[in-house]
Amino acid sequence: MGAAVRSCLLAACVAALPAVARAEWQAVEKVRTYAISGETGAELYASIGERGPKLGPVRAIAHTDFKLTWTRKYEPQGDACVLSTARPKLTITYMLPKPAKALPAGVRENWETFIAGVHQHERVHGDFIKDMVRQIENTSVGLTVPDDPTCRKIRTELTKRLGALSLAQRQRSRDFDRVEMSDGGNVHQLILKLVNGH
């Protein structure tokens, strides 16, 4: 089969696909820092306790936040409404501690191990958020609600579905934190190594 014929067949196949837009997207990931003080691992950790991001009544070592907006296109098709396009714009921000001054050599090495581990932990939270957005996209694109020519019922149905996905993502993050911060967990080990200096 010639290349030109293959190209024509491919074009015909693409043209025959449903008119549902599922564009590739990339999350924007940023790191912000808050200043801490101290010259020993114990002092640095104490400073984190005083200055870390506040989550409810407690302060955390680090925090992952995100901003998510959507470009959506609803299309009436007969008496039904179809969500033909749902394109996310996702920005994930990791808030991490950063010593305000240069650290002594031994402490600096311990700190670098600690902060690399904390950043890796937060990036898992970021991955959970990206997974949630992909699930929202999969749930959204092509969603069809019958007897909805004005495309109102579909918005209520979408909100209901997305609420469940959001709750699942939060629970997944809480479960992950519980394991990582439990005695012997990864974050717990990182804290012990920083504070004890080995």
Number of strands: 6
What structural class do you assign from the helix and strand content? alpha+beta
How many separate helices?
5
Q: Could you state the order of secondary-structure elements as H and E?
A: HEHEEEEHEHH
Q: What integer is the average pLDDT?
A: 88
- Fraction of helical residues: 40-55%
In terms of per-residue confidence, which ranges show pLDDT below 50 for 5 or more consecutive residues? 1-21
Largest sheet, described in full? 4 strands, mixed
| Alpha-carbon Rg, integer | 24 Å
Strand content: 25-35%
The N- and C-terminal alpha carbons lie at a distance of: 66 Å
Shape: elongated
Give a description of the structure.
With 198 residues, the protein is of the alpha+beta class. Helices cover 51% and strands 25% of the residues. The protein has 5 helices and 6 strands, in the order αβαββββαβαα. It has helices at residues 3-16, 41-51, 105-140, 153-181, 186-196, and strands at residues 28-36, 54-55, 58-59, 63-77, 80-99, 144-145. The strands form 2 sheets. Strands 1, 4, 5 and 6 form a 4-stranded mixed beta sheet that branches. The chain has a two-stranded antiparallel sheet with strand order 2-3. Strand 4 (63-77) and strand 5 form a beta hairpin. The longest helix is centred in the middle third of the chain and has 36 residues, at 105-140. The protein is elongated. The termini are far apart.
